[in-house]
Amino acid sequence: MADASDPTAAQTGTQFNISPARSEQDMRIVTSLFTFYAASLNIDLSFQSFQAELESLPGKYAPQNGGEILLARSSSGEPIGCVALRSLGPEACCEMKRLYVAPAGRGLGLGKALATAIIDLAREFKYRTMKLDTLPTMTAALALYRTRFLAKEL
């Protein structure tokens, strides 16, 4: 595991690697993963200006805006998941967004690893509160949030 004091360090599991998405290539991959994420929801995300979000990546998730996008790759380099962090204003509050694990990454503990990595980053950025927004149909995410992260101090 990478040094938790370095928010740009890669975090490595035995079957995956998590690191910040920085390059144009990374943003194309993130766009693809975000699109798969949206398709998996079976709802229209236009009320969140989702298309504009994709077109402006990293946008509100850029480090200079108090955010970050983490990208997970398999040990062979295949993109298998992502998660994003964005600032919710001057109140030391942030939001975890777009946590997605592709089918090839499921069953590896990657969802938990991505959530933990973005929470660690939020701590590094000195956020005190993190908001989570999910749908009732996202049972795996809800179970993860309930058992590991809800109502805990950052």
Gross morphology is: globular
Question: Average pLDDT, to the nearest integer?
Answer: 86
Helix content: 25-40%
Give, in spatial order, the strands making up the sheet with the most strands. Answer: 1-2-3-4-5-6
Topology at a glance:
Blueprint: E1 11-12, E2 16-20, H1 24-41, H2 50-55, E3 68-74, E4 79-87, E5 93-101, H3 110-124, E6 129-132, H4 139-149
Parallel strand pairs: 5-6
Antiparallel strand pairs: 1-2, 2-3, 3-4, 4-5
Key words describing this protein structure:
alpha+beta; disordered N terminus; 32% helix; single chain; 6 strands; 154 residues
Could you explain the architecture of this structure?
With 154 residues, this protein is an alpha+beta fold. The protein has four helices and six strands; from the N terminus they run E-E-H-H-E-E-E-H-E-H. It has helices at residues 24-41, 50-55, 110-124, 139-149, and strands at 11-12, 16-20, 68-74, 79-87, 93-101, 129-132. A hairpin with a 3-residue loop joins strand 1 (11-12) and strand 2. The longest helix is centred in the first third of the chain and has 18 residues, at 24-41. The relative contact order is 0.16.
Compact summary:
The protein has 154 residues and is of the alpha+beta class. It has helices at 24-41, 50-55, 110-124, 139-149; strands at 11-12, 16-20, 68-74, 79-87, 93-101, 129-132.
